[in-house]
Every structure is written in C-alpha cells, then in structure tokens.
C-alpha cells in the first residue's frame, strides 16, 4: 500500500533546513510536555532535556533568538572617523588655483594662500608630474595640501577649521652626504663611462676642472684611466645626486693630471694640482654640459619673431634638467620669472662682472635669492621657459654694464693664485688623505645597488 509521505513543513524558497529542524524540535518538546502533564510525569527524561536545551541558540542564529546576559558592558572611548586622503600628480594645464578650488577652497581663500606663498613658492612654477596630497575630514572639509617640490623640499598648506586661517610652511630634508669613488679605464669616452654609473653631474665638473689642461674631445680616448673621489647625497637608502668632486686623477699618453679640492683658513675653496697651483680660472670653461651652440652672440634672425635683432648671449643646447653652474664666485641678485627670459638667475661677481642664466626649468633649492655662490655650484637646471623654441641655456656676461661675448670672456679669464705658503702644510696633509682614499677599494661605488650603500664611506 502506497502512502503519500509529506514533510511536516512544506519546502518554501528561503526556508532553510535549520529552521525546519528548529520547528520539529519545538513541536517535540511541546508534545512531551503535554504528555508529561497528562500522565503525571514529574520530570523530563535526560534525552528530552538535552533536546529541550538545544533550542536556545546563539547570537548568530538565523531567527535572531538570543540569550542576553544580565550583566551589561558599558563601552568607553571613541572610535574616530577617518580623514580621506587623495594622492595624485600635477597634470598639464593644472594650476594651484584649479587644484585648491576643486578641493573646497573659495577664490578668496586661494588669494589669501597666494599672499602667504610669496617668497616660498612661485604659483607659476608648478610642473606636470609633481606629486601632491590632499587631506579632508569626514565631512569633506579641506584640511591640508602638500606639494613635492623636489627630492628634498615639500610645501605644506594647512587650514584651521575653527579659525578659518591658513598656515604655510616648507619642509626641507637634509641629505646624508657620503664620500665615494669611481675608478676605471675608458672604453669609448668619459661621458659614457660616467653615464653608465648614473653620475651625470660629474661630467661637467671634470671638464671645468681640467679645461686648461685637457681637451676632452681630442685627448680622452680608449685606454685613458681615471680616479674620481666625490660626494654623494642620499635620502635614506635612496641615491639623490652627486655633490662636489674632492679629488680626481686622469692619465693618458704617460701623463697624469690631478685636481684636489681645498678650503683655506679664510673659507675660500678652490681646486689645485699636486704642487698647490690653482686650476681655477676667474670663470669656468662653461656653465653647463651642452651638445652644441645653437645660437651665437651678436645680430641674428630671431627664430620666433622672425626679425633681425641683437642676441646678447649664447644659446647652449642641452636636455631639460641638465645642471647649470655658477661660472664664478658671487651673489644671486635676481632669481625668478622674467618675461620672455623665463626663469632667470643673475649673479653679481667681482671686477664689475655679472652673469645671467635664462630659460631655466627650475632653480636649485640650495641657493635662494640673496645667497652667496661658489664657482661650480649648481644654481638651476636647463629648460625652455619663457620665449623659447626648445630646451637650452641662454648664457650672458656683462662687464661694467655692457654685454660681452661669453665665449671670449670664458676663454680670456686668468687663473687665480695658488695655495699660499702659510697654507701649504695643511694642503699637503689633505692631499695625502685624498690620495689614500682614491686608492681604497672600500669606497668604490660602481652602481646604485644596496651594495654601493654599504661600501660608501660617510663623511665626518
């Protein structure tokens, strides 16, 4: 005989097996209770008691049936809401005004910020690719803006929500300066050798040091040996850039040419050979490492305006970012934007000389307006700002208020005096230290790996 067996509860979508199990257990307990009352049973059997207790479920029960404790926990403290942080890079065409107003500041507030930025930051100097960071509170109110100006410089703008005032400040990280060396034999040319080791700024320094002794295009060839002792600047474990050359030796055709950096008791720094004779001319041989002279001094047809006019400098073609050096000791008397000249620096030297450096992409953070510079200091970087057809340095020399042909001025400058007799003993002692360091293998830095960090020697 066939019986139609049906489940106690019909299956419905969303009705789980656990729920069915619960109802079965509940029905069973109720039935047992009724039976117990009807037949005078004074207690439930252990099996029934176990089944009865199983209907009390925990907090995760699907039906939400919970057993609460009589003891109530009182929570204390605060769980703060998180601020939102957005990190991005400057896009072409973006300005500080666009960035700040897009992040909640009013035009009036941006104007107030601009007033505080004077002397710390030029609004026009934003460059595509620079990193910035914006922080807002949980109510989407502006809190702060940070702009990475360079490897070591970050501009910070903070807003006090209670007073509505702004605070602008600049964070400058300090380099860890280490002493390192490069030694080797040239396979093709010196520039390629140094580029392989990513020590680009050493190329221009060497050419300036030995300008009166070595013609680098003619004399340097495969087989030439070199030793360079120089400063390296690091930020933590990241290589930043190369600093000053401290000592250098270049040997070819049986001759060795040397240069040693020395600072005397009066604080004057120069480069000298092993006998203390000065290698410094009044001017460096060139203000940057360039590939060619794209425009000479004198009358020419302007590449943009199309008309003939007098060109007061020489245009030195070089990639954007190429270091630009002060050609002589002096003081920066102008540093900023100058119309068609773009970013420009003017340095006042002795003997009635001034030099100008035009179309810079950016300035060195080490040498602000009014600071003193030494020959060979990096003051900026080649660019194409202002009225320009491409990256180059427009370099100008003024003597007693009149423009001079820079090529003539650079070649005709006389050498400065050598080490004095009173300083000679100290100079020779320093020279001995440099020579020993040039020959130490433990200061050799041949690449940018962590191994190079370990073999660098920290300066005292």
UniProtKB/TrEMBL annotation:
TM regions (residue ranges): 21-41
GO BP term, example: proteolysis
Record keywords, A-Z: Hydrolase, Membrane, Metal-binding, Metalloprotease, Protease, Transmembrane, Transmembrane helix, Zinc
InterPro entries: Cell_wall_metabolism_enzyme, Dup_hybrid_motif, M23ase_b-sheet_dom
Cofactor: Zn(2+)
Record flagged with keyword Disulfide bond: no
One annotated GO molecular function: metalloendopeptidase activity
Location of the M23ase beta-sheet core domain: 310-406
SUPFAM superfamilies linked to this entry: Duplicated hybrid motif
Protein name, as recorded: Peptidase M23
Origin species: Prosthecochloris aestuarii (strain DSM 271 / SK 413)
């Amino acid at each position: 005989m066939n019986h139609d067996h049906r489940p106690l509860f019909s299956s419905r979508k969303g009705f789980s097996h656990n729920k069915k199990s619960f109802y079965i257990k509940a029905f069973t307990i109720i039935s047992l209770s009724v039976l117990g009352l009807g037949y005078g049973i004074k207690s439930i059997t252990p099996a029934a008691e176990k089944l009865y207790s199983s209907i009390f479920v925990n907090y995760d029960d699907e039906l939400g049936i919970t057993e609460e404790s009589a003891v109530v926990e009182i929570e204390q403290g605060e769980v703060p809401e998180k601020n939102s942080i957005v990190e991005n890079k400057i896009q072409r065409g973006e300005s500080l005004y666009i960035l700040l107003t897009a992040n909640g500041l009013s035009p009036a507030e941006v104007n107030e910020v601009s007033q505080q930025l004077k002397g710390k930051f030029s609004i026009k100097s934003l460059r595509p690719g620079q990193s910035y960071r914006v922080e807002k509170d949980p109510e989407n109110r502006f809190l702060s803006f940070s702009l990475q100006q360079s490897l070591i410089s970050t501009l910070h703008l903070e807003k006090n929500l209670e007073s509505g005032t702004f605070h602008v400040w600049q964070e400058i990280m300090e380099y860890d300066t280490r002493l390192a060396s490069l030694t080797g034999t040239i396979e093709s040319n010196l520039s390629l050798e140094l580029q392989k080791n990513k020590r680009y700024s050493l190329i221009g320094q060497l050419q300036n040091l030995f300008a009166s002794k070595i013609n680098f295009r003619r004399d340097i060839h495969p087989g030439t040996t070199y030793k360079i002792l120089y400063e390296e600047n690091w930020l933590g474990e990241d290589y930043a850039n190369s600093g000053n050359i401290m000592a250098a030796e270049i040997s070819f055709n049986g001759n060795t040419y040397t240069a040693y950096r020395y600072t005397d008791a009066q604080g004057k720094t120069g480069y000298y050979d092993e006998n203390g004779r000065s290698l410094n001319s009044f001017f460096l041989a060139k203000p940057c490492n360039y590939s060619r002279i794209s425009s000479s001094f004198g009358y020419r047809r302007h590449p943009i305006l199309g008309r003939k006019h007098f060109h007061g400098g020489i245009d030195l073609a070089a990639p954007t970012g190429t270091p630009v050096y002060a050609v002589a000791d002096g003081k920066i008397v102008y540093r900023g934007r100058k119309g068609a000249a773009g970013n420009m620096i003017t340095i006042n030297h002795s003997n009635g000389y001034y030099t100008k450096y035009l179309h810079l992409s950016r300035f060195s953070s080490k040498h602000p307006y009014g600071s003193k510079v030494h020959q060979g200091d990096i003051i900026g970087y080649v660019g194409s700002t202002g009225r320009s057809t491409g990256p180059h340095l427009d370099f100008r020399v003024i003597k007693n208020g009149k423009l001079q042909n820079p090529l003539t001025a650079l070649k005709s400058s006389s050498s400065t005096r050598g080490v004095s007799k009173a300083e000679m003993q100290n100079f020779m002692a320093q020279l001995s230290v440099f020579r020993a360091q040039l020959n130490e293998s433990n200061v050799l830095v041949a690449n940018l790996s962590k191994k190079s960090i370990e073999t660098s020697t920290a300066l005292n």
